[in-house]
Amino acid sequence: MPSSKPRYRAFISYSHRDAKWAKWLHRSLEHYVVPIDAFTEGKQREGDGAAKCRHLKPIFRDRDELPASGSLGDTIQQALESSENLIVLCSPASAASQYVNTEIDIFRNLYPDNKKKIYALIIEGEPPACFPPALVAGGTEPIAADAREAGDGKADAKLKLIAGLLGVGFDRLKRREAKRQRNRLLTIVAVVSAVAVMTSALSLWALKSEQDANGARDLAEQRQLEAEAARQATEKALQREETQRKLAEQSARESKAVLRFLETRVLAAARPKKQAGGLGADATIYEAIEATEPQIKKAFTDQPLIEASIRDTLGNTYFYLGQSNAAISQYERAVELRRKELGSENLSTLNSMSSLASAYWKAKRNYEALALREKTLKSKIAAQGAEHPSTLLSMNDLAISYRTASRYKESVELQEKALQLHRKLLGPRYPSTLTSMANLAGTYLTMGRHEEALALNEETLTLLQEVLGAEHPNTLALMGNLAISYSKAGRHEDAQALQKKTLKLKKKVMGTKHPDTLRAILGLAHHYRTTEQPNEARVLYREYLAVRKTQPGRDWRFYYAQSSLGAVLTGQKQYAKAETLLLSGHQGLNSLVPKPEAKWLKITSQRLFTLYRHWGKSAKAAEWQTKVNESEGTNENPEELEKMNF
After folding, report:
1. In sequence order, what DSSP letters do the residues of 454-487 get, joined into one string?
2. How far is CA 623 from the centre of its chain?
3. Taking the model in full, what pTM does it have?
């Protein structure tokens, strides 16, 4: 049972790998002097038990990891029972720590009705992967302070925790802290000025005594210049602080506006139909966004940066829904707004440009993606250096565009450099390091360096399963890549087993209609067809087409799947059904703008020739044989084209 008189203001729970962060937080909290108005507010809000003194000490920080059994020693147990609050340092290391999870479970059992006593501080990684499982038990993701540079920053994250411990508002505490810092700087100016004046006076007296009035005047002037320089330096420091405060306030306004927009416009779409724009309880995220998107520009006419943040958020949502063109529209508007308000070299603008380039690449507009990624990487290197994590991500993105453009030498050199820097700066288990490994393995595979690709894919999958878990989307994507490596290495049974496992997990995690799940269905269907398992292939092609027919838009994969199913039916002598599918697939590919790669059209033409030849329709077979011979884009034997992956 918790102690009736808690001994510690807070217990810091962390992985031993994050010991430096824990030491910083422990020192920062214990050395913090509570502003008098925050101290008073805490008493008024929570009674005499709150804000017991002008300090937060003592804070408990253990120094040893638990043994493998996961049992807590008496000291740790007693410290948890004697603590008013629990602070959890969230990172990939703590997410994997049995120690941290056990402490959270015990503390939560001590205070089952007061979840506000647990505070999360993100120091590394991305939510929710960085949260210990016990922290998100029940499916609720905590609202956390974010000490990362891309989040709140260390100073604001510390103040958010302190505000929670005191039970006061963050904004008020931050304004009080800024005022205290300004007063401190002004005090320093006064002291420096006083010392300068005193020094000048003493110098004058000494020099006058030596009948050197001119030297005394010169020295006094020098001291005055030094005092003025100190005053100007302090003013500049205050100006920098004020600029940072305004940026923080702008960021907070943007975040609140985005959240408010999502709450009132997007998430509220489940209201009954025709009630304040409601779409009904069965509304999808896509439908909710589509209904509210036209309102954005009007709602934020005089707030361009807030509109840009919302555009970025919606662009991300469209991107993950597989709606690349819709994502592009949102990102382009965000880039336009940020360039106008912040300039082309601002980091926020560059991040929006990176998102736009990824959407271009996803939409097969690689020329635009490549040009934008080259510009973005150059600007990021100039602004924050080649070793910044954001710069490393842009290096990987550009390498992918080089690979898509068949510029393999540039791609592999850039990816090998990026991976080397990732391992050096972030470590081998960091999520973006693992992404870099997976991308390089894909380039090796494309270049025909199959042994290197296979070894790197196997290493990456092992690490992903340890760091992110067996069902994380990145892990599932890597499983698909490894299956391709197995196939290229002639290990077809291993490839098939891994593809089946991957498809099963993707259906479970992402659902049957997710683009990644559908691509996994196609990949396994293609494997069945090329390894002479037509019945299994037929079932999967039909499953894929049935789902895609319920979704808007058609791409080359849809029409190629029709043609592939037609090829399977040709082999099973179901010629009439095969003809309908083969013609629809070929005509659909021809109708796309821009047209797909010439090899797909040649393959579908070859399949129609094969159909009519086996069906005994020689005139039709001759007609399609001519079209095959006239096809452009590849000189390979048409009979070999069926073995190509898609």
Report:
1. HHHHHHHHHHHHHHT-TTSHHHHHHHHHHHHHHH
2. 52
3. 0.53
Distance (Å, rounded) from C-alpha 473 to C-alpha 519? 13
Is residue 634 within 8 A of residue 603, CB to CB? The reply is: no
Phi, psi of 83 (to 5 degrees): -110, 140
**Beta carbons within 8 Å of 9's beta carbon, 6+ residues apart:** 29, 56, 57, 58, 59, 83, 84, 85, 165
The first and second tokens of residue 222, run together, are: 């020098």
Distance CA 399, CA 374 (A): 10
The secondary structure of the chain in percent helix, strand, coil, rounded to multiples of 5, reads 70, 5, 25
- pLDDT, tens digit, for every residue of 497-527? 999 999 999 999 999 999 999 999 999 999 9
* Dihedral sign of CA atoms 42, 48, 49, 53 in order: positive
Is residue 642 pLDDT above 60, yes or no?
A: no
Residue 368 above 80 pLDDT? yes
Cα 15 to Cα 63, 85, 157: the distances in Å are 10, 18, 19
Residue predicted with more confidence, 160 or 214: 160
- Between residues 204 and 307, the one the model is more confident about: 307
Structure tokens at 610: 């094969």
- Give pLDDT, residue 247: 54
**Looking at residue 645, what is its pLDDT?**
33
What DSSP assignment string belongs to 183-235?
Answer: HHHHHHHHHHHHHHHHHHHHHHHHHHHTT-HHHHHHHHHHHHHHHHHHHHHHH
Question: Does 456 score more than 70 pLDDT?
Answer: yes
Locus of tokens 């635009």 = 368
**Closest C-alpha among 489, 476, 487 to residue 519:** 476
Structural tokens at position 304: 């361009």
* Count, residues in the chain: 646
Place of tokens 């842009």: 394
Give the pair of three-digit tokens for residue 151. Answer: 């989040």
In the predicted model, is pLDDT for residue 198 greater than 60?
no
How many C-beta atoms lie closer than 10 Å to residue 266's C-beta? 20
Return the higher-pLDDT residue of 197 and 490. Answer: 490
Indicate the SS3 state at residue 356. helix
Round to whole Å and give the CA distance between 76 and 60.
Answer: 9
Read off the pLDDT of each residue in 253-257 and give the average, rounded to a whole number: 59
The SS3 call for residue 162 is helix
Tally DSSP H helices, then E strands, for the chain. Answer: 27, 5
Instruction: Using CB atoms within 10 Å of the CB of residue 6, give its burial: 0 to 12 exposed, 13 to 18 middle, 19+ buried.
Output: middle
Beta strands in 256-305 (DSSP E): none
Under a CB-based contact definition with an 8 Å cutoff, are residues 394 and 377 in contact? yes
**Three-state SS at 508:** helix
